[in-house]
Amino acid sequence: MKKVLMFALLLGLVSFSYASNKMAIDYYAAGDYKTAKSYFLSGNMDAMDSYYLGMIYLKENKKDSAQYYFNKGLQVDPANAYNKVGLATINNDSKALDAIAKDKLYKKDVKMLIAIAEAYAINNNVSQSNAYVAKAKKADKKNPLSYIFEGDQLMAQKQTNEAASKYENAVYFDPNCKEALLKLSQIYENVRTSVAVEYLNKTITIDPQYAVGLSSLADLSYRKGFYPQALDAFNKYLNVVKPTSSDYERYAAILYFNKKYDQALDAISKAPNTFVMNRLKMYSQNELEKFTDALATGGNFFKMAKPGDVMIAQDYTTYADLLSKNKQYAEAASNYEKAYNLDTTKTSLLKDMAQAYNYAKDYAKATTCYKKLTTLPNASMVDVFSLGRTYYIAGNDTIVDKNTRTKYLLEADSTFTELTQKMPDNYMGYFWRARTNSALDPETSQGLAKPFYEKAAELMLPQKDEYKNELMEAYRYLGYYNYLKNDVPQAKMYFNKVLEINPADAVSLQAIQGLENAGKKKK
């Protein structure tokens, strides 16, 4: 029983080690040396693992590290010729390379012959490299390794079409060659995306555990905006690997664009605490209406930003929205402005900025924003009205000094005059001119608002049910104005008009009662 258990445990260990090294070799073959290195270093390395790791360091121009792993491979297996090829590559030792090739074990070994061809290529000996590729083809014309190597060399020279032809030859001779299919997908990604996807799907059909293919399919789908497909592929990828923090970083982004915000936050909690992850965290919390959390995350996001980090307009607008919800209007306005400066085509940000500055009582900046809006080709009368209304609000705010308030009210009157000129049949311009002139004449001694309330009431009367409050405001003013002028009949008429709309209006009832009492006293 103990022997069986020990055998099972050993088998499990060997299987895990093999799976790990197989994955590492897959990533090496795909050219993803960073990921391959992490897998090689995480497991128990055999002689061939040491060779691949040495080759990675050699390609990174770290010859000391490369030599260390080639020697380590020979310590594990002194007969391993691949590590000898590696050392010969470092020393540019053609005699040693040729001697290995002449060994009867390797004369027709395509893998070894291509390894030697690569050694010569690394040392820029193109003629000898080509000679060994020819030997490999002579040994086995159908082996895809020769064509893949040729394709890689052509890709390094940016001869994409020629490289694709070589990779297609590899697939022709071996339809199950995952490496060639993967490289073809990389070539076709930006030319014919559907073909690239098809190639990647083939690799996964051949090997459902092919992590490189699943990861590549997820990344390609994500880049092209095929988010559900990206999520499906990445979920499968996570099932065949032990996820790293970097994997969760990628997963969080895919989940976010699939609108799975709760899951995105869970993935972010397992990912590195990076600038980008804090961005996605703020976005996700905002989408989930966790506004307090999102505001705090946004603060951290901007604090950790470094000079090289790229900000996008959405960073500022999201944070600005959160600040507005928290009534931090001045800071919100500043962030809307930063977003607008990044992309001045988004003119709607001028409105957001103006509103925030308005709430912050920074009327000078608010009116500047609205002025910009009114000069745009697509400016609307709503923009003109908003500008006028901001002038009006500023002109009635006691935090502004008296002289400046008067200037704001005069600007408001001018702006609302423009509305009456462009929309003469609409009550809005007249009504707001009336309010503005009432503010300019607070004692109603000059009756500045009278003609505008009269015109506004005339235009609103056909739709009196819709404009009840505005009509009552106009009639109250006109009633009061006539009262001050001692025109009792006119005053009573206007107050009665208010009562026709609202019989319980206390102001008008009191005014009429006062007029009637005054009339009785005179008698």
What do you see in this structure?
Helix 9 runs antiparallel to helix 10 (160-173) and helix 10 runs antiparallel to helix 11. Residues 1-20 have low confidence and may be disordered. With 523 residues, the chain is mainly alpha-helical. The protein is built from 29 helices and no strands. The chain has helices at 2-30, 33-42, 47-59, 63-76, 81-91, 94-102, 110-122, 126-139, 144-156, 160-173, 178-188, 193-206, 211-223, 227-240, 245-257, 261-270, 275-287, 291-304, 313-325, 329-342, 348-359, 363-374, 381-395, 402-422, 427-440, 450-460, 468-484, 488-501, 506-522. It is rod-shaped.
Q: Features of this protein?
A:
523 residues, mainly alpha, 29 helices, rod-shaped, disordered N terminus
Could you outline the blueprint of secondary structure elements for this entry?
Elements: H1 2-30, H2 33-42, H3 47-59, H4 63-76, H5 81-91, H6 94-102, H7 110-122, H8 126-139, H9 144-156, H10 160-173, H11 178-188, H12 193-206, H13 211-223, H14 227-240, H15 245-257, H16 261-270, H17 275-287, H18 291-304, H19 313-325, H20 329-342, H21 348-359, H22 363-374, H23 381-395, H24 402-422, H25 427-440, H26 450-460, H27 468-484, H28 488-501, H29 506-522
Helix pairs in contact: 1-2, 2-3, 3-4, 3-5, 4-5, 5-6, 5-7, 6-7, 7-8, 7-9, 9-10, 10-11, 11-12, 12-13, 13-14, 14-15, 15-16, 16-17, 17-18, 17-19, 18-19, 19-20, 20-21, 21-22, 22-23, 23-24, 23-25, 24-25, 25-26, 26-27, 27-28, 28-29
Protein name: Tetratricopeptide TPR_1 repeat-containing protein
Signal peptide: 1-19
InterPro entries: TPR-like_helical_dom_sf, TPR_rpt
